[in-house]
Amino acid sequence: MSETFTKGMARNIYYGGSLFFILVFLALTYHTERTIPERTNSELLTESVVRGKLVWEENNCIGCHSLLGEGAYFAPELGNVFVRRGGEEGFKYFLPAWMKAQPTNIPGRRQMPQFNLTDAQLDDLTEFLKWSSKIDTNNWPPNKEG
Ligand code: HEC
């Protein structure tokens, strides 16, 4: 092996290393793209889920809440609120009741505004949050309180 580190060697490491990591990056991107439909249960994406996402966006819920870690950290994470507040049996009752009860005006507690959503919008929102909770996030967040 040569004693000196030549320009040619540096160039080979640079190009070889870049090519190697570009290939790793492309392979991982391909893998992610392939697994997204399965991890997000895209077959469960109903019209109602899609409408629920629109309600979520139009009312800027993300301005206070986070969803799978994205968003604001003023109010609780909602990616797993379905699991935390009733699941299959209870969540469809919890969410409309919660939304209608706001603001609670409990002193010392952060307040959530009243959005005056219709029953149909609340149904769609319920479906959207239910669908979101089923996304395979490698068990994130680590506990169900978000
Ligand atoms: C101005 C900030 C703000 C906005 C905007 C907001 N929220 Fe909230 N939300 C809060 C706060 C604060 C709490 C916690 C209140 C408490 O615990 O008393 C909360 C709690 C909740 C909870 C209960 C969470 C739990 O763990 O029990 C749900 C569900 C919820 N919000 C849904 C929504 C939805 C859906 C929207 C959009 C339509 C929305 N929020 C928009 C501030 C907000």
Give an overview in words.
This protein has 146 residues and is an all-alpha fold. The chain has two domains: 1-39; 43-146, Cytochrome Bc1 Complex, Chain D, domain 2 (Orthogonal Bundle). 53% of the residues lie in helices and 3% in strands. It has a two-stranded antiparallel sheet. The model has no long low-confidence stretch (mean pLDDT 95). Bound molecules: heme C. Residues 59-61, 63-65, 74-76, 78, 81, 84-85, 95, 98, 104, 109-113, 115, 125 line the site of heme C.
**Broad structural category:** mainly alpha
The CATH homologous superfamily of the largest domain is called Cytochrome c-like domain
Low-confidence stretches: none
Overall mean confidence score, pLDDT: 95
The CATH architecture of the largest domain can be named as: Orthogonal Bundle
| Ligands (ions, cofactors included) | heme C
Shape: elongated
**What count of structural domains?**
2
Q: Which oligomeric form is depicted?
A: single chain
**What is the CA-based Rg, rounded?**
23 Å
Helical element count?
5
Largest beta sheet: strand ordering: 1-2
